[in-house]
Fold these 2 entries.
Entry 1:
Amino acid sequence: DITYTVTVPVGKAGLRLDSFLAGTLKIISRTRIKSLIDEGKVTLEHGAPEGDALDPSRKTLEDEVFLISVPPPVPAMPEAQLIPLDIVYEDKDILVINKQSGLVVHPAPGNETGTLVNGILFHCKDSLLGIGGFKRPGIVHRLDKNTSGLMIVAKSEPAHVNLVKMFQTHKLERRYTAIVWNLPKKQGSIQKPIGRSTVNR
């Protein structure tokens, strides 16, 4: 396990424990911190009373010192498969893949194998860091099976946390090219939610 030591400084008392730890460590998401607390992986340095488990919503007290024990990655459920990937860019933290049409992103009922995740597992092998407790590539956004285009994949926990935040706050711009039948009668911008037709899917 990797252990982090965090002290509650002046001015940080009274915050939720999970929010404080996530905001202080920054490289671990609040959701992951919450699960670590629930699993008993977060303790007071001098030890909480025996049997007294910490709660994610517990309020912090000034000068408290917490130990956060992050376990090593566990094997992912999907198997690694040799699947051709069109890799546009790669470094130690991210992959940018040009996903081809017809490729499913996540294993799911009916598509347990042959997905982008299976291909990423094969490509990255043991170089991936633990993301969310699992030894797997961090899929931070999706494209439909029949949609082609660029996808960003996180290879480390800091990259995963930051990419998720960027998508949530719309700091990443996504552009799509659509194919239409006949000529549009008008030009302009569509600024409404777009969904699949309930009549002609």
Entry 2:
Amino acid sequence: MMTGELRCLPPEAMGFDPAGWKRVTTLAGQLCAEEVAPVLALQVVHAGRTTGPLLFASPAAEGPFAIRQDPIFLVASLTKPILAMGVVQLAEQGLLALNDRVVDFLPEFAKADRRNVTVRHLLTHTSGLPDMLPDNMALRREQAPLSRFIAGTCEVPLDFPPGRGVQYQSMGYALLGEIISRVSRQPYNEYLRDALFEPLGMYDTALGTPESWWQGREDAPPKVERIVGIRVPPEQEGGDDWNWNSRYWRSFGAPWGGLLSTPMDLAILCQTMLQGGRYGDARVLSSAAVAQATRNQLDAFRDLSEADRRTRSWGFGWRMNWSAHSAAFCDLLGPDAYGHWGAVGTLFWMDPERELAAVLLTTQPLERGRSHLTRLSNAIVAAVAD
């Protein structure tokens, strides 16, 4: 296994068939030209080499929705597996165990129906918590702090007993962020900065914009000017003070979806996972932790249905490739591939078998049951020369 840093090379020097790669870039350009996505950033990793970021844009993508040469994207739920790796780090350090009860870290999570919810349940979406709180939109319109979301999650009824079902639960990741803060004794976003982003050289990545990003220098404008605006869905229109493009949300640092990053920084993270937790001279995870985090963990839950364990598998934060699901990462990847989608139109995935990874970032929210990024992923995998 290679453990060095990524080298930017032309696709043909990375093992891609020239005609196949041409199909990739043509398709990416068409998605923007046809206004399927106003902008698209693409970066592929293969065997320790990378294309570097490739940028595509619609002619109509102007002003705050235009793409720069060094763009930063809100990546939404790509945040979740990265936050999960912070939790796994704490387990490596002996500061928690994944079968510890959540209430042992968050005493306010003490209602009878949830006392047996564990850290493992939160990581694998088997806790019974809902995806979002019933008053989620109201809280955002009020520009509520994270503490209000935590308090609501401690009170909201579970949809099923822990370990008895699989249901995507962003609020479980709200609790994981709070657990990181209390166990590490520093805010979860600062912990991730110190334990993951800075050791890997991911200097354009932050879980919530720090104040320094809003301040310019004599030789450079504020970093926030590099953030590409998102086409917000109808329910967020008119919410310029609280929606995805607002200062409130960019600074909020939602543990379930507030990460801002670049194609290159995320490619570094992908390569780190493919290399068993190491990048260059930095080791941020053990190879044992990476192996467990990126395999199906649902077999451990005896009360789950066989179909859920087999077809809706989760690692620790990482979703495995659900091949027969409408939102499969790629039709040509096997069951050992893992990654995550983001609601704003983002995707990254890794394929250990091929030493291959792709980062696909757009600003067009995903359509339920349909994604052009799956088609683009198919073209990427098919372009790998035999």
